[in-house]
């Protein structure tokens, strides 16, 4: 247990004999009552003791040279810490009413007249010592109560925080469970369509129109599967900060016009009235990622706007920013959902039988890609069936003085010879057939060593190399091709299922000219081959 200081009694008297008599008398009861006695020979010394100690009671002689008892009492009670110490005046004279009034005005609680009757002194001292003990106990209890209150407050805050964290975790787990169910649904739908279309093509006696229709279904659903995988991978990269932006000055209005034209020609906006109101707005951004941002907003508007509804796209400048807004007349956003629309796995409609699909990650990807560009995104809706508005704000940049020349999209003459190194038999066969249909002379190999042998004899202009090859991987294939005099100048394009910035860095360090992420769209592949060939001619 911590040591508890005893209450203290101060005796102030200038007469040595009187001081000794009083302190000796008080010392007789000190053990019994549990207090200590301190003596002072003058008012000044008494004040010094008050500065150093707390006292249960002070016995103060009235008639002292220099600072008398009244002055000493007044000085003691002027100090905040000692203002409440009870003072008993000791005097040899019978005090008249004026003296008593003066004493009480200086803070006295009582008088003792000499000669002092020991029993009376004992009784008075006992009362004040007991009061001091009680006061100290109350203070101790108050400190303990305050400490306990602080502990309980901290514990309550911790418990509240844990409850909130648990509720957030439960919501996230519930959202993830719903997301996994939705992912299974979204994957099974196109896979079922592809499987049915492939089975139809294999049936005997199938008409040509049916085969053509089945092929279109396979192509469309394959692209849909590719978009699902791309969204998942892009979200993972974006959340971990591993997306590498290829930024350059571009006119956002022109990009929006091109995207909307694609929506119209492919029929994705059929049934809706889509309007573009845009003025030139130059930003320093990645064209592919900005297109991805807009397409996600556009797809979201189409998903939640019934046929016959209107979608308006705005592009305007506002000081140092360029604003992109997508406004629809659709189902709107409930007030309870509005603060959470940019969170991962959040969707407005969670039924598995809805007409439009989606994984609930598009808007989360929009926010992250926008933030990577140094911008911000906000959502507004007045509630259910009132439509919604999504606004992107991006830092504005100056229009470049010279417009960059677009990269050559195709090669009109002198198509390059191509070597394809791919270990997946079906993928290798299909890509070879497609390249041949586009007029390219193609040789192919199933592993890295076979590919190196073909490269040495065939001497192609360009090689498409899968990274995940058996034996030696695509990185080693590229290094050996670059090390050989006969193949050092060959253009190399890497094909891989990984698209992180680190993968891109490793590909370029190994000697590749370009990096394509599977599945590779044929138009994208044609542009990549054309770009490499154009670079070679320059």
UniProtKB/TrEMBL annotation:
Bilayer topology annotation: Multi-pass membrane protein
One Pfam family of this chain: HATPase_c
Coiled-coil features, chain-numbered ranges: 135-172
4-aspartylphosphate, modified sites: 61, 466
Domain Histidine kinase: 182-398
GO CC annotations on file: plasma membrane
Enzyme class: transferase
Response regulatory domain mapped to chain residues: 8-129, 417-533
Annotated compartments: Cell inner membrane
Predominant localisation class: membrane
Gene Ontology molecular function terms on file: phosphorelay sensor kinase activity
EC number from the UniProt entry: 2.7.13.3
SMART domains, alphabetized: HATPase_c, HisKA, REC
Protein's UniProt keywords contain Electron transport: no
Protein name according to UniProt: histidine kinase
């Amino acid at each position: 247990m911590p040591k508890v200081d005893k209450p203290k009694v101060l005796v102030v008297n200038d007469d040595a004999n009187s001081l000794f008599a009083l302190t000796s008398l008080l010392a007789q009861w000190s053990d019994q009552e549990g207090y200590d006695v301190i003596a002072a020979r003058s008012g000044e010394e008494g004040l010094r003791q008050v500065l150093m100690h707390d006292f249960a009671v002070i016995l103060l002689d009235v008639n002292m040279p220099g600072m008398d008892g009244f002055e000493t009492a007044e000085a003691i009670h002027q100090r905040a810490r000692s203002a409440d110490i009870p003072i008993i005046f000791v005097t040899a004279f019978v005090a008249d009413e004026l003296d008593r009034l003066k004493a009480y005005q200086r803070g006295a609680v009582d008088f003792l007249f000499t000669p002092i009757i020991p029993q009376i002194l004992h009784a008075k001292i006992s009362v004040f010592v007991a009061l001091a003990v009680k006061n100290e106990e109350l203070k101790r209890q108050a400190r303990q109560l305050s400490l306990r209150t602080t502990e309980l407050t901290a514990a309550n805050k911790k418990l509240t925080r844990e409850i909130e964290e648990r509720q957030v975790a439960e919501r996230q787990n519930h959202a993830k469970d719903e997301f996994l169910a939705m992912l299974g649904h979204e994957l099974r739908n196109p896979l079922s369509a592809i499987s049915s279309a492939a089975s139809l093509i294999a049936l005997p006696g199938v008409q040509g129109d049916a085969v053509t229709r089945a092929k279109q279904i396979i192509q469309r659903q394959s692209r849909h599967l590719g978009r699902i995988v791309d969204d998942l991978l892009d979200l993972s990269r974006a959340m971990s900060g591993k997306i590498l932006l290829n930024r350059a000055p571009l006119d956002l209005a022109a990009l929006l016009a091109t995207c909307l034209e694609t929506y119209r020609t492919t029929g994705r906006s059929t049934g809706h009235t889509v309007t573009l109101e845009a003025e030139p707005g130059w930003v320093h951004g990645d064209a592919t990622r900005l297109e991805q941002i807009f397409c996600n907003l556009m797809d979201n508007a189409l998903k939640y706007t019934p046929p016959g509804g209107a979608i308006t796209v705005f592009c305007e400048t506002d000081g140092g920013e360029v604003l992109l807004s997508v406004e629809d007349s659709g189902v709107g956003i409930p007030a309870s959902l509005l603060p959470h629309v940019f969170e991962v796995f959040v969707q407005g409609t969670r039924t598995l039988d809805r007409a439009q699909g989606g994984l609930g990650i598009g808007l989360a990807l929009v926010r992250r890609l926008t933030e990577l560009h140094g911008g911000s995104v906000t959502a507004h809706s007045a509630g259910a069936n009132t439509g919604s508005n999504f606004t992107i704000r991006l830092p504005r940049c100056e229009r470049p003085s010279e417009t960059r020349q677009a990269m050559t999209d195709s090669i009109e003459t002198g198509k390059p010879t191509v070597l394809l190194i791919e270990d997946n038999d079906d993928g290798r066969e299909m890509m070879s057939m497609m390249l041949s249909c586009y007029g390219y002379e193609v040789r192919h190999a199933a592993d890295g060593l076979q590919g190196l042998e073909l490269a040495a004899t065939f001497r192609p202009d360009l090689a498409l190399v899968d990274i995940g090859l058996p034996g030696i991987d695509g990185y080693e294939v590229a290094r050996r091709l670059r090390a050989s005099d006969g193949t050092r100048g060959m253009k190399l394009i890497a094909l891989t299922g990984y698209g992180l910035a680190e993968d891109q860095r490793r590909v370029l360090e190994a000697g590749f000219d370009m990096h394509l992420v599977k599945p590779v769209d044929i138009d994208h592949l044609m542009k990549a081959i054309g770009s490499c060939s154009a670079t070679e001619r320059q």
